[in-house]
Amino acid sequence: MSNTNNQILKNTNAQILDEFNASIMFDKELYAQDIKGSIAHSQMLCEQGVLTSDEQTAIETGLLQVKEEIESGNFEFTLATEDIHMAVESRLTEIIGEPGKKLHTARSRNDQVATDFRLYVQDKSVQLKNQLKQLVATFVDVASKHTTTLIPGMTHLQHAQPLNFGYHMLAYANMFKRDFERFESSYERNNYSPLGSAALAGTPHNIDRFSTCEKLGFSSPTNHAMDTVSDRDFALEILFNISTCMMHISRISEELILWSSYEFQFVRMSDEYATTSSIMPQKKNPDVPELLRGKTGRVYGNLISLLTVMKGLPLAYNKDTQEDKEGVFDSVKTAEISISILNEVIKTMIVNTDKMEDACKIGHLTATDLADFLVQKQNMAFRTAYYITKDVVAKANELGKDISELNIDEIRSANEELKDVSEEIVMYLDLRNSMNSRNSYGGTSSIQTENQIKYFEQWLEKN
């Protein structure tokens, strides 16, 4: 091979290695956190006499200029600076000269990146928590309008017992409330400052970690430098929290897809969140809920990816952890847009109350109520009542009716044991009566549903 070809190959390999090693093209997402951390660090160094007041002022002014350049699109990101930390520091030194070279005193890129990334995760945890609060409020608002609207409750996707639609919506309000609480709990558990841990063992410089901690809004400094620079539990937590939240989004998306089909017709989604077929103009496809359901797999992949990266790492810092950020950035953006879109889908959907109630007349949803009546009022053993109820269901099928539509004579003719049964049994088989009879705490009755709505309204006001 000629010398020219060898040089081309070397140059190509060098470029590939630069691209492979650098993180600047994705960790530039952390520019605001990096600058915030650097300003706090410079202020602390000034307080400790490491920097003069003039040096600190120049550094802070220069860092704010870098921030403005980035946000205005006038900052050029290149592979030569490798990562966001070196990009900011290099540009700072270009702007202010020698004082810029003093900024990195008493810190390492190890604790710097841990600080930047943790600040990002904490910021996003608050943002996602606030979005979830809005989503809970939307489900509660829909629930408040449908505390008497009947819908078939299902198990195994088979008709089971009558519910009210508000109650069904509150099931999702509870799910997303738990998601809110997970982000809140993670924020508190991870609100500790890595800054000052340096490479892995602290620093000999006279620093005040409590000062930078306070400036950055952390509760306290982390208490073990080696653990701190290698810890990515906070990143795994936000990925887990997002994955669980997206699982809940996927579940409601699945129901929206089913409910909007011709077979159900329980809801109609706004045209903004559904599309027509390219060749079948009569079709209206639930594309947005399908995408929400599909994106759940994406965030699961990001969680598993980082778990796999971390599982075999020795202490302390390893370059492997450069792979921690892209998945988090991707999952955060996916969750932000997914929560926002779902909120609008739920707000704008049209509920077909008649179709829901008609569906409650399919599948004998009040059969359990008949068995309960026989146990409570006729003093029957449940198993005996169970088999008698099967006879009544068979009679209803024979007559082409739902059990809730049978009159007293038809019920009595179903089984010899029912020949003298009280007419009160007809009321027990009424769909709305059945729904309201489930008045135990947490049950589906309209009264219990209204109580749950009041609870959520108080919770939303408090949070």
UniProtKB/TrEMBL annotation:
Its main location: cytoplasm. GO terms for molecular function: argininosuccinate lyase activity. One of its GO terms (cellular component) is cytosol. It catalyses: 2-(N(omega)-L-arginino)succinate = fumarate + L-arginine. InterPro entries: Arg_succ_lyase_C, Argininosuccinate_lyase, Fumarase/histidase_N, Fumarate_lyase_fam, Fumarate_lyase_N, L-Aspartase-like. Its EC number is 4.3.2.1. Pathway: Amino-acid biosynthesis; L-arginine biosynthesis; L-arginine from L-ornithine and carbamoyl phosphate: step 3/3. Residues 12-301 form the Fumarate lyase N-terminal domain. It is an enzyme of class 4 (lyase). GO terms for biological process: L-arginine biosynthetic process via ornithine. Signal peptide: none annotated. Coiled coil: none annotated. Residues 364-436 form the Argininosuccinate lyase C-terminal domain. It is found in: Cytoplasm. SUPFAM superfamilies: L-aspartase-like. It comes from the Bacteria. Keywords: Amino-acid biosynthesis, Arginine biosynthesis, Cytoplasm, Lyase. PANTHER family: ARGININOSUCCINATE LYASE (PTHR43814:SF1). Belongs to the lyase 1 family. Argininosuccinate lyase subfamily. This is Argininosuccinate lyase. It comes from Malaciobacter pacificus.
